[in-house]
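Students often ask why we bother encoding 3D structure as a string. The short answer is that it lets us treat folding as translation between two languages. Here is a chain of 375 residues written in the first language.
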Amino acid sequence: MSREVHLIRIHTQPSRGQVWLDQYMGQRPTFNCVLGFTATGLIPGISAAGLTPRDREYTAVADAEFLYRGHQPHPTYPLPPLHAGASPVLITRAIVDALNVPLQLFNAGLPHEPSIPTIDLQGEPAQCLSDGKALPLRTVYHLFRQGLRWGHQLGESSQESYQIISECVVGGTTTALAVLLGLGVPAIGKVNSSHPVCNHGQKLMIVQQGLQLAQLWGQPLIPSPLELVAAVGDPMQVVAAGLTISASQHCGVMLAGGTQMLAVYSLARAMCTQYGLPWHSQRIVVGTTRWVAEDSTGDTVGLATAIGDVPLLSTQLDFSESRHAALRAYEQGYVKEGVGAGAAAIAAVLYAGWTQPHLLAVVDQLADQLILKPT
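And here it is in the second language, the structure alphabet:
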């Protein structure tokens, strides 16, 4: 690669990752965000993506509004307050807006009506996975079909480029852990969270309870992937898996995130095996931030290695010299990733050749417009 190779690191499957990067150098992607909700995210302490459970109830619609509109003096859904740091949607919005990247938002199932245009997939929010009955199976089948249908449309529209598929689901790393373990991936102690120190014990307790109640814990046979999502997943996962399977038949795909998108990759692969669908793994990578990939309280690289055939990329974006304390908090382990922030930064390097100073300047400028006064 000729463009700032140090700003994109390939952690797993280096040959395939490099081929993918070389193929899509200079190509402008389309950015897609799948919005979803799980009541798992309302459990006290489970997530730092909002101070209180009520704040977290509105995180997805607030992030979607900001991603679509940018800073507004009187937003319908203000960005929720955090324990520390700033929403990763600042990173994504700054890059998508500056590069005029096409944007699409999918509503897979939210408790509140979004304030901006979305593609409503007629899903529903998931219940807490701890009951082993997260979603009705009919809803999961419907969302999977929707994902497959829209994925073909996306892929056919950008056959020379790639689709970024991102997510916004509070509590989604916990549903990701549940799906990974249900698929037989040794994921205990490897997932990440928005906390500076991952709450592995709390996540595992909730996940184990849900899988046991669904009679999926410790079973020798891996369940149907769709039944697994119905038991312990969330609506984003099945939509993103469908999008990935069908879009990758036509173009490249970057799954935007860490733990959650590694779970989506594993889910999509299992669906292709289960239902006899074509699987174009050579066109798919997972892209995240270095704050996720290098998180010492998780093991994202180990998780990707355990999954086996997925290239894991990370942006080397650094906020240590940001003029905003809320952005410098990323360097202390807060927030880390979300709303496709890492993939957006990777895309800025691939498409426009942005450097670290350019990336930092663009995000800092957007933060200037918010309550994030330079400190």
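Translate back mentally: DSSP finds 15 helices and eight strands in the chain. Keep this in mind for the problem set.
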